[in-house]
Amino acid sequence: MSVKSIAVLTSGGDSQGMNAGVRAVVRSAIYHGLRVFAVQRGYHGLIHDDIREMDIRSVGDIIHRGGTILQTARSKEFMTEEGRQTAAENLRKREIDGLIVIGGDGSYQGANKLSKLGIKTMGLPGTIDNDIPFTDFTIGFDTAVGIVVDAVNKLRDTMTSHERSSVVEVMGRHAGDIALYAGLASGAETILVPEVPFNLDDVAARMKAHFDNGKRHSIIIVAEGVGSGEDIARGITERNGLESRVTVLGHIQRGGSPTHNDRILASRLGDFAVRRLLVGDSGKACGVIKGELVATDFERVVTAKKPFNRELYDLALRLSE
Ligand code: ADP
Ligand code: F6P
Question: What is the pTM (predicted TM-score) of this model?
Fold first, then answer.
């Protein structure tokens, strides 16, 4: 049976570029002659039937906006079999035969289960964390990294004036990619991520050596997955006696206008997901690997872990001596 009508939702933590993804899905679906619906507030809206039909103008003026016009939510009900059955039923009664979920790893777990209930589901990686396997980048990551780099540029000015060190705690739940990419791009001296074990004695000694060797600041980027920036800063000062200041960037990293990279990624992936549904594909997560669009079974994606780029990590350390 060919797909005639699809829906799109955003779920979990929002990310910059989700709106560009929604726009791409809606416009591509209409271009291909499909009816297209939007679900408000992710899986919560699916269970509570908060669904409306979109037209070509419904997604005007959003490509450049952060957040998500569809709102997002974390739904406990959807974690239950009963909740997911209700969600599937709401789609069936409207004769919606395909669903595109834009979200992170948790949202993908949900999409995988929904797809096993017979709903033709496709996923787009919408998270700043870049922790989804089988795609080089996730929608929002590029913007989040840019925000961290901009913050570090500013911190570096004042840290240099005072000859201090700056501990910057960044997001990433269990993943270190924001810290890694922002650290390399901003010339940070230290990058602490959950994927690479570290010893605070070594971190403190290396920082001391840097100051002794003429550096006038030291930037330490801490991924939230390794612990709090406050604890790390205290631990370092106890060991080397050097003064530091802590900045927790928090949700600032998740807002603002998406970069052109995130808009392009979201636009390509949104259109790709619609085209995959049209040719009868489902139960897959869409991504980009080495520039090529790919669709990988949800089951593989939700059971795999994205490999950490150790080469970039070592490069960042070498270049910050
Ligand atoms: P993200 O998608 O950003 O990782 P969450 O982990 O909060 O965000 O997941 C978003 C939503 O996806 C959850 O609120 C829940 O409704 C659904 N979800 C997460 N994990 C599962 C799971 N194991 N089974 C079914 N649904 C899930
Ligand atoms: O997964 C995206 C993310 O922003 C993580 O980096 C962070 O740990 C988490 O979401 C914060 O979630 P919340 O929206 O509950 O504050």
Answer: 0.98
Q: What are phi and psi of 31, to 5 degrees?
A: -55, -40
Residue at 5: amino acid letter: S
- Residue 102 CA to ligand 1 center (angstroms) comes to 12
Quick check: CB of 113 below 6 Å from ligand 1?
yes
Measuring CA to CA, which residue among 270, 263, 267 is closest to residue 143? 263
Domain that holds residue 289: 5-140+258-302
Q: 286 - beta bridge partners?
A: 295
Q: What does the pLDDT look like over 52-91, one tens digit per residue?
A: 999 999 999 999 999 999 999 999 999 999 999 999 999 9
Whether residue 75 has its Cβ less than 6 Å from ligand 1: yes
Q: Which residues are marked as active site? A: 129
Establish whether residue 127 lines the binding site of ligand 1, counting it when its CB lies within 6 angstroms of any ligand atom.
Answer: yes
Six token digits for residue 317 = 């350390």
Please say if the pLDDT value at position 264 is more than 90. yes
Domain shared by 9 and 134, yes or no: yes
Evaluate whether 273 touches 287 at the Cβ level (below 8 Å). Answer: no
Residues 47 and 135 in one domain: yes
Task: Work out which ligand 2 atom sits closest to the CA atom of 104.
Answer: 1
d(CA 175, CA 129): 7
Partners of 169 in the β-ladder:
222, 248
In a domain, 321, yes or no: no
Query: Hey, CA dihedral for 262, 265, 271, 274, is it positive or negative?
Result: negative
Closest residue by Cα to residue 219 from 229, 132, 228, 197? 229
> What's the confidence (pLDDT) of residue 2?
85
* Ligand 1, atom 15: closest residue by C-alpha: 75
Give the total number of structural domains in the chain: 2
